[in-house]
Amino acid sequence: MTIIYALTLKQLRYLAALKEHGHFGRAADACAVTQPTLSAAIAELETLLGAVLVERTKRRVVFTLLGDEVVERSRPILSGVEDIMQITETAQAPLTGVLRLGVIPTISPFLLPRVLPALRKAFPRLQLYLQEGLTAVLLEQLELGSLDLVLLALPYEAENIETMTLFADRFSVVCPADHPLAATKKIPVDALPSESLLLLADGHCLRDHALSVCSLARPRLGAFEATSLHTLVQMVANGLGITLVPQLAIDAGVLNGTGLAVRKLQGENPHRDIGIAWRHGSRRRESFEILGHAIADQIDAS
After folding, report:
1. DSSP string spanning the chain?
2. What is the pLDDT of residues 50-100, one digit of tens each?
3. What CATH number is given for 99-302 in this structure?
4. pLDDT in tens, 204-251
5. pTM
6. Is the pLDDT of residue 188 over 60?
7. Ranges for all domains in the chain classified under CATH 3.40.190.290
8. Where in the sequence of the chain do the CATH 1.10.10.10 domains occur?
9. Among 9-13, 198-202, 294-298, which stretch is predicted with the lowest mean pLDDT?
10. Which fold has domain 2-87?
């Protein structure tokens, strides 16, 4: 029992950060401490437990089986403490204090410039910190308690989260102006040539949503892939194929200056849903829903 009481939340948080980032320097940066401070805290934790949690080599960090289990068991503890801190921040009024929002890269540059000015005006006491990343990474940080809320594309299969859909983001076909599809105003899904369909690389949920819209399990071998919508659009502009682009990006001007043709896509559900996600059972649910409605209202008004 003495060992249990000697453990600190800081030690557990540093260990979870090291697991997440896989590097002492990056984990220290994420925790806003020096690398020696983080390393010393983890070493002290190992001494208290009398066990090795992390094997250190010159090239990489490897967690032992016990280290992995300690991280997993610490996650609900860290999330619970984070909820306590958030309760005190929002006790007087919703959407006050710090809110750490994760946003995926196929939404962030296209949506945030449209909504942030109005959000700052509507909630002047809200301190919004933004972090961009892939959906899986952001949801892991949400579970760990290092993020409060994630702005993402739905549907997305994940455990221990609650979601709220804000609005539908319709897909359009984007192709060169001289492409045969450009002669058609509305393009059926089954008319899309899968062999020339350009997609984002694995890990981007937009890729999965596009494949779902097209009823494709995967693109054909040899298909080109991009790491951002801007790169994807440039690939189409250079005659490498066609792609699907969400309306959110089109409205934000991702096609400006390309001369590409935009055609409506016909199908049962040719769209993705934009929504927010938070930890299951979070006491800030009311605040998150207020923020979600505020974002949706800005899209409806624009």
Report:
1. -HHHHH--HHHHHHHHHHHHHSSHHHHHHHHTS-HHHHHHHHHHHHHHHTS--EEE-SS-EEE-HHHHHHHHHHHHHHHHHHHHHHHHHHSSSSS-EEEEEEE-TTTHHHHHHHHHHHHHHH-TTEEEEEEE--HHHHHHHHHHTS-SEEEEEE----SSEEEEEEEEEEEEEEE-TTSGGGG-SEEEGGGS-GGGB-EEPTT-HHHHHHHHHTT-SSPPTT--EESSHHHHHHHHHTTS-BEEEEHHHHHTTTTTTT--EEEEEESS--EEEEEEEEETT-TTHHHHHHHHHHHHHHHHH-
2. 999 999 877 788 999 999 999 999 988 888 887 777 666 655 567 888 899
3. 3.40.190.290
4. 788 888 777 776 545 544 455 678 899 999 999 999 989 999 999 999
5. 0.70
6. yes
7. 99-302
8. 2-87
9. 198-202
10. Arc Repressor Mutant, subunit A (1.10.10)
Token pair 């919004």: residue: 128
